[in-house]
Design goal:
The protein has 1 helix and no strands. It is mainly alpha-helical and 55 residues long. The model has no long low-confidence stretch (mean pLDDT 79). Pfam families: ATP-synt_8 (PF00895).
């Protein structure tokens, strides 16, 4: 059964992981999103009760 031979598939997997780790990962980690959640300040809204006319 040739699909159980790890010789060509291991090399392909190794090359793809090295490509991901060495070329793509630093580019993705250097990306800064425009709406960073770290810079947001959370404010609490003061709620006022609603005056219902039938109560």
């Amino acid at each position: 059964m040739p699909q159980l031979n790890p010789n060509p598939w291991f090399f392909i997997m190794l090359i793809s992981w090295l490509t991901l780790s060495l070329l793509l990962q630093p580019k993705l980690l250097a990306y800064n999103p425009t709406n960073s959640p770290r810079n947001k300040t959370y404010t609490t809204m003061a709620s006022t009760p609603w005056n219902w006319p039938w109560t």
